[in-house]
Amino acid sequence: MEKRQLIMDKSMELFAEQGFRNTSVQQITDYCGISKGAFYLSFKTKNELIMALIDSLMEKMTLEADRAVKTASDKDLLYAFYYQIFHSFRKHSVFGKLIVSEHMQSINEELVSKIYYYQNLLDKLILTIIERLYGNKIEKTKYDLMYCVKSFLGMYTELFISNNELPDVELDLDLLARSLVEKTNILAKHAFTPFVSHELFQIYKNPTIGDMTQQQIITLMEENMEKMEDSIEKDSLILLKQHLIEPKFSPAIVKGLIENIRHHPNCKLIVYLLENRGDFYSAYRY
To answer: Per the database record, which ranges form the HTH tetR-type domain (predicted)?
Structure first.
């Protein structure tokens, strides 16, 4: 077994038994039968090891859920998704509880980044399921339904985390999955008032979206231009793209161009991104 993987597997056992804080690097190396030097060749710190374990766990859960969805028929699609997610939660519930009770108290930027990265992957998977199952019938409410599905996952995950203290209670995954399929179908069929639009979803799905690179914004502009018919809004978007590449308009002109596209359904995210670029209005050539 590769030394890095050996450290991860063995440390997981120790962390589950003793917790993060009460497990030292020395204990890990003794348990693995390696030197401290060998440990530090793989991980700079214990915290880096913990982050690697969290990353590995989230990746496994994401891939397992994705695999379950891809191999399921439409009839069993939602069931397979819910069952696999909660099966993974139950399998890793001890480590999940550790993350919540100990490591989240010292949350850092890297952990936040990883959490949002995997949340975005989960969002994409849930949307794929929703679109595959319900098609255009829920086009206006699909983002609301996605958040409802995520809420189900979060609420019922609490049962698995607290269940560590109740070892004799065996939660019925089949019943849970069938119950959530029923609830999801009811929402899909009888919820008609949308709250989360495509634009709002794009803004909130990534807390660092305001830091998108210039090229990413340009690509977004070009994608939206293709969807737009010839109009003042499209012409304004073309001029704003040119200004982003080579600033040449005064702030007054830029503001006018942005106002032209502000209320266009394809341009709300672009307006948000441009207005959050501190130099966009002022960086132009006289």
So the answer is: 1-61
**What are the residues whose beta carbons fall under 8 Å from the beta carbon of 30, sequence distance 6 or more?**
none
HSE-up of residue 212 (Cα within 13 Å, Cβ side) = 23
Exposed/middle/buried for 75, CB within 10 Å: 0-12, 13-18, 19+?
exposed
Q: Provide CATH code, domain 52-190.
A: 1.10.357
Own/partner pairs, 157-163, CB within 8 angstroms, 24+ separation: 157/86, 157/89, 157/96, 160/86, 160/89, 160/90, 160/93, 160/96, 161/93, 161/96, 161/97, 161/100, 163/90, 163/93
The whole-model pTM stands at 0.64
The top-level CATH class assigned to 1-44 is: mainly alpha
From first to last of the 286 residues of the chain, give the pLDDT tens digit: 578 888 888 888 888 788 888 888 999 999 888 888 888 888 888 888 888 888 788 878 887 888 888 888 989 999 999 999 999 888 877 676 666 655 555 555 666 667 777 788 888 889 999 999 998 889 999 999 999 999 999 888 877 766 555 555 678 999 999 999 999 999 999 998 999 888 788 777 655 544 556 777 888 788 888 878 889 999 999 999 999 888 888 888 999 999 999 888 778 778 867 876 656 665 544 3
CB atoms within 10 A of CB 12: 18
